Structures are given as C-alpha cells and as structure tokens.
C-alpha cells in the first residue's frame, strides 16, 4: 500500500457569485491542470438568508458537468430544456451541460435559515464537449451509507467503495465522490485509485491527512497579543487538502471527529480554454460559444 502525501493544504476563500450569493471557493479559475479533471469547487453553506436568497438566475453552461450536493435547505432549479425540480437535504444533482444549456438555481433555507451544500465542476473531454445536455437528480435516500466497526461512516455518492456503488453514474470524469465521517481519535486509511487525482474538503471537525500521530490543522498567520504568529488552526472547517500519487490516504481524526468529502477522478489532460461557465479546448471554440450566445444559437436542437 502506497500512502498519498499531502501536496497542499489551504483554506477556501470567501467570494460572491450569481445575484449576490456569499460562498467559499476551495479552487477554481486558476491552473486547471492542478486537479484535472475538476475545475471548481464551491461551498455554499450559509446561515444568513440575505446572503443566498437572490440565488443564481439564468446563466449559460457549455463543455462541463456540475455535481450539486445539498446538506440543508433546498435548491429549486429550472433550465432551457423545460426541466424543473427541487433538491432537498441529502439530495444530489448531476448536470451535463454538454453543447449548451441555460439554467437557474434558486436556494432556500430550512426552518433555521440554513442553506448548506457544495457544487463541483468536472471537465468534459473534447469528444463530449458538444454532447446533448442531460440531468440526473438523486434523492438522499438512494445514496448508500457504510458504517465500519470503528464508527467510520461513508456515503457513496458517485463511484464504488467498500462494496457499495453510488446511484450517480455516466459522468465522463468517472469520479469517486464520498462523504466521510471519522469519529474522534480514530485513525483511518481509505483506498483511492492510483491513477486518479484526489482531494479532500473538510467541513466539520478537524483531522490530519498525513501518517502522523497527532491531528493538525493548516498553518495560519494570526495575531496573538498584538504579534503575528504561526499557529495550527484546528478547526479544519473549509479546508482543502490536495494529495499526491499513491493508492490510499490516511486521516487521523481530532477531538470532535472529522467529516470531509473525498473526491477523485481520472485526469483528462487536454488543453483548457475557459471563460466563466463555458469551458472548451481552444480559444476559437470559446469565441464561437460567445457568438452563439449573442446570436441566439447557443442552445442546440435535440437530435
């Protein structure tokens, strides 16, 4: 067994998208080869309705797939193909934008005002950039959960893990998408396919993704008694962990346990031409997409 080293650990950064939705971005709009085939990961957990209710009004996508995972609240969606629906707590939606789609996503909080969830963008290879758009909505009750003897819990959203297969399939990047909880003090080793790029995103508790005895957070500069000092942030919340090569990762959970998404996928290794929600292979293809938007031919007729 070859343990994957931690290449980088960093905090998600606060940003604003849509019509004024406050969220945190773990990665996106930077070097697309870093986590190929994944392009962007947004954490839209928020407890203040004014910071999310304006949502994401009508906007285009082409050349990518999006995977949305809702923890609390609901997301109402509609698109240019006439599809409508609502994602509730625990639900997942996979959308293949393919040749082009216009859609909107409008979040609503739960009874406590919480709107919690994540969205991942996965690239499409050149051979599928102009494929027909499609959706797959999956209810949370359809997602298998495995509970190990030490209390570790794994929800298998996409891919196969410990003998279970997630209900979302047909994604070009062939990803594995797991929601993992490791109890306090437990050290756990989890397999990851050798040929995949992999990352973890911590959203509850704290843990160390190294072969270490003590859990550590990421190193941050903070002001203590008027002086800047480097300390270990043990919260772990909104922390991205990027892994090197190997066939497994090890996590040592902290005092409150740790919950994280473990996501991996096979790299596409193709050129990327990217502007906002449109991702193609060349600048010429990107310029054509812009022309299609301007002249009303962005949505292709069904074959």
TrEMBL record:
Pirin N-terminal domain: residues covered: 22-121
Cofactors demanded by this protein: Fe cation
Residue ranges annotated for the Pirin C-terminal domain, each copy included: 177-298
Domain of life: Bacteria
Gene Ontology MF term list: metal ion binding
Coiled coil: none
Co-factor binding details: Binds 1 Fe cation per subunit.
InterPro entries to which the protein is assigned, alphabetical: Pirin, Pirin_C_dom, Pirin_N_dom, RmlC-like_jellyroll, RmlC_Cupin_sf
Keywords assigned by UniProt, alphabetized: Iron, Metal-binding
Record has Secreted as a keyword: no
CDD domains on file: cupin_pirin_C, cupin_pirin_N
Sequence intervals crossing the membrane: none
Pfam families: Pirin, Pirin_C
UniProt-annotated binding residues for Fe cation: 59, 61, 103, 105
Annotated family: Belongs to the pirin family.
Protein name: Pirin family protein
């Amino acid at each position: 067994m070859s343990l994957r080293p931690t290449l980088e650990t960093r905090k998600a950064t606060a940003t604003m998208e849509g019509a004024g939705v406050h969220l945190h971005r773990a990665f996106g709009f930077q070097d697309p080869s870093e986590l190929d085939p994944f392009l962007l990961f947004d954490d839209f957990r928020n407890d203040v309705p004014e910071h999310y209710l304006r949502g994401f009004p009508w906007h285009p996508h082409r050349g990518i797939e999006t995977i949305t995972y809702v923890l609390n609240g609901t997301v109402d969606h509609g698109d240019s193909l006439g599809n409508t629906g609502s994602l509730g707590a625990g639900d997942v939606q996979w959308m293949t934008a393919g040749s082009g789609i216009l859609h909107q996503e409008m979040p609503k909080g739960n009874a406590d005002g919480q709107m919690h969830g994540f969205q991942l963008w996965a690239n499409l290879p050149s051979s599928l950039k102009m494929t027909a758009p499609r959706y797959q909505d999956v209810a949370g009750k359809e997602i298998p959960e495995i509970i190990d003897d030490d209390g570790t819990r794994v929800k298998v959203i996409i891919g196969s893990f410990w003998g279970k297969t997630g209900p979302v399939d047909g994604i070009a990047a062939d990803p594995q998408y797991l929601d993992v909880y490791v109890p306090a003090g437990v050290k756990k080793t989890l397999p990851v396919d050798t040929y995949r790029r992999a990352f973890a995103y911590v959203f509850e508790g704290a843990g160390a993704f190294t072969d270490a005895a003590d859990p550590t957070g990421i190193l941050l500069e903070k002001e203590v008694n008027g002086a800047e000092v480097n300390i270990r942030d043990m919260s772990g919340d909104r922390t991205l962990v990027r892994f090197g090569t190997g066939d497994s990762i090890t996590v040592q959970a902290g005092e409150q346990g740790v919950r994280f998404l473990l996501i991996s996928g096979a790299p596409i290794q193709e050129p990327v031409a990217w502007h906002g929600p449109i991702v193609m292979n060349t600048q010429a293809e990107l310029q054509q997409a812009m022309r299609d938007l301007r002249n009303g031919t962005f949505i292709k007729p069904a074959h």
